[in-house]
Amino acid sequence: MHKLLVLYPKPVDPDHFRDYYVNNHLPLVRKWPGVLAWRYSFEVAAAKGEPAYFAVFEADFADAAALAAMRASEFGQQAAADVVNYATGGVVVIDYAVRDDSD
Length: 103
What we know:
It holds the Pfam family EthD. InterPro entries: Dimeric_a/b-barrel, EthD_dom. This is EthD family reductase. Residues 11-88 form the EthD domain. The chain has a four-stranded antiparallel sheet with strand order 2-3-1-4. Helix 1 (14-29) runs antiparallel to helix 3 (74-82). The chain is globular, with a radius of gyration of 14 Å. It is α+β, with helices and mostly antiparallel strands. The protein has three helices and four strands, in the order E-H-E-E-H-H-E. The protein has one domain (2-97): Alpha-Beta Plaits (2-Layer Sandwich), CATH 3.30.70.100.
């Protein structure tokens, strides 16, 4: 499995972020090809002090090739271009292979 993780620092207008994200951005995500599951939260907490991030998003893909295909797709490109419309605090995007040691 391969995971996409998106971390959002606090935006200038948190209410606009929440509204735009749910009503405009996530509908693009729903159209991503190859995504196995996705989830997000605005309830980000820190073990100590203020959290470094306002929101988090994660998506699961079968492998790195499936993630690359999504990014190259029409809806992947649209979602990437849409980030500037709500993430005024910036964005951190990482992806990684998930290792499962439960066997």
